[in-house]
């Protein structure tokens, strides 16, 4: 195990020193920064001073007993309602742009329930109402700073939990959660990038070591199992670092933008169990594809040959994106369900269905169990091929012989 860790450390440091890896890691945050900056510049230069802002009416229900006045702030009129039922009716009738229920625990948690019409997409149309309501809350909170809770709410006045309603004022069954959608789709694309980059480097390194006869020296000091385990661990950690930089930069940019531009709707994160499920799919997906890449690297004899064969692995991984429109229309249909249990498509398909809230707890558990079993089989297959063909040069063994070795572990 110690030798495997030495190999893992070497692979990690080598990967972190690769120019291509560093450029790809930095490219995503830079692209997001340019995107946010471009949007900000567009808004700044296109917003004319002569444009007359439209007035808005925002409803609210004060169950925390904190509102003391300030019913008119700028272009926004704040209309009180006796309870949430009445506020829902007002939103459904179009009397107010949105309504906000200040919960009884508001001073402790900062939670405000936002009531809007369903079908609002990312919530851009309610960004102005949210911004105005934050100012409304601040104006009332500073009227009495008698305790730390109120001071805390001045700094962070509201964490919105959106409830979309239909024309009858009832909660819409398929309420759209942009935070969940964005998070899980980002994780799905992260898996694709890992397949194309991290596992690609794994395959490239194996081919280079075989072609340069470095493999003979390595196998004189470590076993094939230790070599494979070390490579998978080292490159896996590099992949997690890359994904961490991407996700961290995205959260940081959204947070920073929300500080300076109030009208940007702040997106939270899904619940902790869902985040753990997403990372489970990421780790298992990486392990499965990395094991298959390692098996390809063991049996191929040149970099060109291995690159041609990687198409067999990569194409099924991106298959869910071919059916993206049908998945959006019916994420609980037969085809998405089947692809949830196929190891080649399970990581990306499952994350796409989670983004659309189309998987229940039992289906998630069954999919993860099936993917875990597939990882075990892929690792065992890679181990057998590693032991048998790492030192085979000149020609690739015939398919029948490879299948025999994969099943029996013998040449």
Please state the overall shape, judged from the principal axes of the Cα atoms: elongated
Helix count, per DSSP? 17
- Please report the total strand number as a whole number: 6
- The percentage of residues in β strands lies in 5-15%
Uncertain runs are: 121-126
Largest sheet: 6 strands, mixed
Question: Helices and strands, in N-to-C order?
Answer: HHEEEHEHEHHEHHHHHHHHHHH
Proportion of residues in helical segments: 55-70%
**How would you state the average pLDDT, rounded?**
77
Amino- and carboxy-terminal Cα gap: 26 Å
**Rg, Å, rounded:** 27 Å
Strand order of the largest sheet: 2-3-1-4-5-6
Helix/strand/pairing category: alpha/beta
How many distinct domains?
2
How is this structure best described in words?
The protein has 2 domains: 3-36 and 178-408, no CATH class; 51-165, abc type-2 transporter like fold. 65% of the residues lie in helices and 8% in strands. The protein has a 6-stranded mixed beta sheet with strand order 2-3-1-4-5-6, with helices on both faces. It is of the alpha/beta class and 411 residues long.
What are the main properties of this structure?
single chain; 411 residues; alpha/beta; abc type-2 transporter like fold; 2 domains; six-stranded mixed β-sheet; 17 helices; 6 strands; elongated
């Amino acid at each position: 195990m110690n030798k495997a860790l030495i190999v893992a450390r070497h692979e990690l440091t080598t990967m972190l020193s690769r120019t291509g890896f560093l450029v790809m890691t930095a490219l995503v945050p830079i692209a997001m920064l340019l995107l946010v900056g471009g949007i900000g510049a567009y808004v700044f230069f296109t917003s004319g001073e002569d444009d007359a802002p439209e007035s808005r009416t925002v409803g609210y229900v004060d169950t925390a007993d904190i509102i003391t006045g300030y019913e008119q702030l700028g272009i926004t009129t704040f209309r009180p309602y006796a309870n949430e039922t009445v506020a829902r009716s007002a939103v459904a009738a179009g009397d107010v742009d949105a309504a906000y229920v200040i919960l009884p625990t508001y001073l402790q948690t900062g939670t405000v329930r936002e009531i809007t019409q369903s079908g609002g997409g990312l919530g851009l149309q309610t960004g102005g109402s949210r911004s105005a309501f934050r100012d409304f809350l601040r104006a009332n909170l500073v009227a009495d700073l008698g305790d730390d809770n109120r001071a805390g709410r001045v700094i962070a006045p509201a964490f919105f939990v959106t409830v979309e309603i239909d024309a009858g004022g009832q909660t819409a069954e398929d309420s759209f959660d942009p935070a969940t959608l964005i998070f899980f789709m980002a994780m799905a694309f992260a898996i694709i990038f890992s397949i194309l980059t991290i596992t690609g480097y794994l395959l490239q390194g194996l081919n280079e070591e075989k072609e340069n006869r470095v493999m003979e020296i390595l196998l004189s000091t470590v076993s094939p199992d230790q070599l494979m385990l070390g490579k998978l661990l080292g490159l896996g950690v590099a992949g997690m670092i890359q994904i961490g930089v991407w996700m961290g930069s995205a959260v940081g940019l959204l947070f920073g933008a929300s500080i300076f531009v109030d009208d940007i709707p702040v997106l939270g994160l899904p619940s902790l169990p869902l985040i753990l499920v997403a990372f489970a799919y990421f780790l298992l997906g990486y392990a499965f594809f990395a094991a298959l890449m390692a098996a390809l690297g063991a049996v191929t004899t040149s970099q060109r040959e291995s690159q041609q064969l990687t198409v067999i692995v990569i194409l099924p991984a991106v298959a869910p994106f071919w059916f993206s429109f049908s998945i959006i229309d019916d994420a609980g249909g037969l085809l998405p369900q089947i692809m949830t249990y196929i190891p080649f498509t399970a990581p990306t398909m499952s994350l796409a269905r989670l983004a659309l809230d189309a998987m229940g707890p039992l289906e998630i558990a069954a999919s993860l169990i099936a993917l875990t079993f597939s990882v075990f089989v892929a690792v065992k297959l890679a181990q057998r091929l590693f032991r048998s063909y790492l030192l085979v040069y000149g020609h690739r063994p015939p398919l029948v012989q490879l299948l025999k070795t994969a099943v029996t572990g013998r040449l």
